[in-house]
Design goal:
By secondary structure, the chain is of the alpha+beta class. The protein has two domains: about 40 residues; about 120 residues, Alpha-Beta Plaits (2-Layer Sandwich). It has five helices and five strands. Bound molecules: iron/sulfur cluster (SF4) (2 copies). The site of one iron/sulfur cluster has 14 residues, from helix 2.
């Protein structure tokens, strides 16, 4: 009985090993005989275009005239299941106007550690102010770096410079400054 068990186990193991090696060898020879170039992307020098509906880094957008779209209504914060958005509103005045509405966000923060990139904030926003764009390189070094402030999130006036570029420039400048 014992011998039969050992024999059966060995037979099953050998069979599984043969099947596994067969798959490996099949892929190996397929690649070897392939005439098309390999599809490997040399990241980060090369990047694949991301899926059109990709949702990554948040951006607070502006109108063409430079005014901020955000009116400080906090609907995004209310819709956020992770409770990671903090909005503080203030009144616009004729002398000091930031948005077309009565109010604007004087403080806007997202705790990116808690964010699950669900996009509910974008869906809830009545003015299309907060949007999730394709910048996915969000790694950082300290927890504090993940608290994105309004200054970090707001699109620069008069252009659509990717915020990732601004972040990289700022970080490089900080690194140089530190040395
Ligand atoms: S993407 Fe989702 S979790 Fe992240 S801030 Fe927006 S609503 Fe909150
Ligand atoms: S981002 Fe949109 S939803 Fe959030 S406070 Fe601003 S206007 Fe309101």
């Amino acid at each position: 009985m014992g011998f039969l068990n050992v024999f059966n186990n060995t037979k099953d193991g050998a069979k599984a090993l043969t099947v596994g090696m067969g798959i490996t060898l099949r892929h190996y020879f397929e690649q070897l005989l392939k005439t098309e170039p390999c599809e490997s992307v040399q990241y980060p020098e090369e990047r694949r275009e991301t899926y059109p509906r990709t949702r990554w880094r948040h951006v607070l957008t502006r109108y063409e005239n430079g005014l901020e779209k955000c009116i400080g209504c906090s609907l995004c914060a209310g819709a956020c299941p992770a409770r990671c958005i903090y909005v503080e509103a203030a009144e616009n005045t004729d002398e000091d106007r930031y948005s077309p509405g009565e109010r604007f966000a004087i403080r806007y923060e997202i705790n990116m550690i808690r964010c699950i990139f669900c996009g509910f904030c974008q869906d809830a926003c009545p003015t299309g102010a907060i949007v999730l764009r394709k910048d996915f390189e969000l790694a950082d070094f300290t927890r504090a770096d993940f608290l994105y402030t309004k200054e970090m999130l707001l699109e620069p006036a008069g252009g659509t410079i990717p915020l990732s570029a601004i972040g990289i420039i700022n970080r490089n400048a900080e690194a140089e400054h530190a040395h």
